Amino acid sequence: MFRNQYDNDVTVWSPQGRLHQIEYAMEAVKQGSAVVGMKNATHAVVAAVKRTPSELASYQKKIFAIDEHCGVGIAGLTADARNINNFLQTECLNHRYAFSRPMPLNRLVGTLGNKMQVTTQQESGRPYGVGLLMIGFDHKGPHLIQIDPSANHYECKGMSIGARSQSARTYLEKHLDEYLGAQSVEDLVRHALRALRDTLANDQELSSKLISVAVVGKDHPFQVYDDEVVQELISVVVKEPRAAVRPAQSGFALDADLMEDDDTNRPPPPEPGVSVATAVDQHGRTEAGYSPSG
Amino acid sequence: MGHFDPYDDNGGTVAAIAGQDYVLIASDSRLSTGSTILSRFTPKIYPLSKVTVFACAGFHGDVLTLVKQLEIRMKLYVHEHGEEMSTKAMMALLLPTLYGRRFFPYYVRPIVAGLDREGRGLVASYDPIGTPEFFDYVIQGSAENLVHPFLNNQIGAKKTLSDVPIQAPPELTLEKAVKLLKDSFLAAAERDVYTGDTVTLMAITAKGTETTEYQLRRD
Amino acid sequence: MAKRYDINSALLRDLPLINGSHSSAVGQPKAHTQSPSVSGTAVIGVAFKGGIVLAADTVGSYGTLCKLRTIPRLLRVNKSTVLAMSGDYADFQYIEQLIAKKTMQDFCSDDGYEWTPKSLHSWLTRILYNARSKFDPLWNSYVVGGLEDGVPYLGGLTMLGISYTAPYMATGFGRFIAQPFLADQLEKNPEMDEAAAREVAIHSLRLLYYRNRESSNKYQLTVVTKDGSVLEPIKEFEGVWDTALMIRGYD
Lengths: 294, 219, 251
Prior knowledge:
Chain A is an alpha+beta fold.
């Protein structure tokens, strides 16, 4: 692991103008198993690979409902995600209590961004170690929003975060027009499963135990689909041949094509530099031992 | 010096009957203040889940606030447990919710009605500070004193000398229960000025919820 | 605390003064407003096919004194939402400010999210209910109107936080005088168009003008249709007093 004299504290700048602690927090997202999200004109889906610390334990939850109109898929520290979910749920409930209607996604993410930003600027505590893909439906239609530990958030057409997620992003870029123009929710979910499949190790295959899928959209409240429904869609996808070449994992999950066309949303290009490479096996065990990442 | 009264009585009547495999809840839709009518289109009946319904007479400001609170508690429960709160749990929750405001009470006359996990009907009524009563049939609101004896006679078989066959639960059928509640509200509207306009009837069975409406006198 | 000697004290004899101005306030518990001062009387709301109309006269009464003759009691919130108020005018101005602040925040968010009649109705209900729960009530009744997803919405609200919806409504003295007329008209003509609804609303004000000493023949309308909302200029109708001569034995 790289270390230098400027990474002891989140409030200390490196001479290159970087905050290393925040970048390390971004690396925590990559320890978590992959999450894929995408949307078409009416719906948004999120799908995730679940992990279990042992054959004897249950699979860690990856997708959480926030309100009737939105939910999140997470990659990174599950415990941090629970804290964030609680905040998001409370925000949505308060908005409904006052206005009798769902909270717009951009405002929800805005309040979360404010909360997360604080942790990137004070020396006590640490940034959140979790990345989120939030899907939702509001007065502006379906949304997919990526949220980083750096407190940045990006509105996306399709996105993937977590372990080996570059493979999924490659799929999402290649099939952008197909899922954006998808005519049915089932088509959209199938695309999500294909993208997710590309993040799996060669000896792994999609299965209903391993995969969690959620959908939200027009007249479709946020719903996590149970094993049987997922199994039906999985059985179609697993019959297809797998992607032959899987590109190498890159440092940052920032692909301009997948972002919504809004310059203010576009992140800066990734800088070469700190990258934490840790081998993670299929059950989330790192070389050093079990990782708490989901 | 004027005295500010934070309460109002907006009248209205709500009632429920629990059967072996159904529960029936009814409310009129009149909202009044003093001798005037605010709205003829406000049924005081609020579904909280697929199998649980809340109905409430009293001060409508408190009713609306209480309903919002219960809806929030139901949602938080779903987030935490991954399933909707049972009717029994909601009945248990309402008690501390009301008693928590013991010294500035919600001026409400609530009913919780629903099916239990086995699909049997359950109803409970509460006083404004949360004392619950569990019975096969309950009635609350401005016409409760008029209708309660009728239901006692017809369902509870209290003090009955006549040879009219009494159909008490579990024998009481949904069809008969619907007729009894319709008669109850028709009778109430004849004698109680705060009950009238329309009645909303919700019948919950294992098959789902069926909602019907019928007219009462509007004077 | 300043006493109100600015107008004939005989007129004010029975008028409760606000905020503990009867007492010297020293050592007294904090006193909240226990009654309104300058107030507006009834407002009318009528839903028609494709929209709603709200109507109010423009008097600000101080007890029985017609203190202000031309104050608007209707508020255009945005293209889909309007508001009519009766009760304390200062409390209404406070609410106006709260709404303006929220509206500005919405505008700055630049996300196309703005007031709808239902959200304003819900929010105002919370404001008024919370105020009454603190024993510091905002002394108003409101009618919120507009189009909610293209469907006419008419919501009523009292100072205690009692809210309701109905296809027609009146506040204050209008509950006695205008509401029976409105009920009758909408029963005869349930598919009322805009012109008919305007006529019914104005006639309701006219009925109030004849029997409600706090009202006047100066009035304002606001209409919401799919083409947007319009707050119309203040107008006047002429009273027809011919029949007054025929009223005998009831006065």
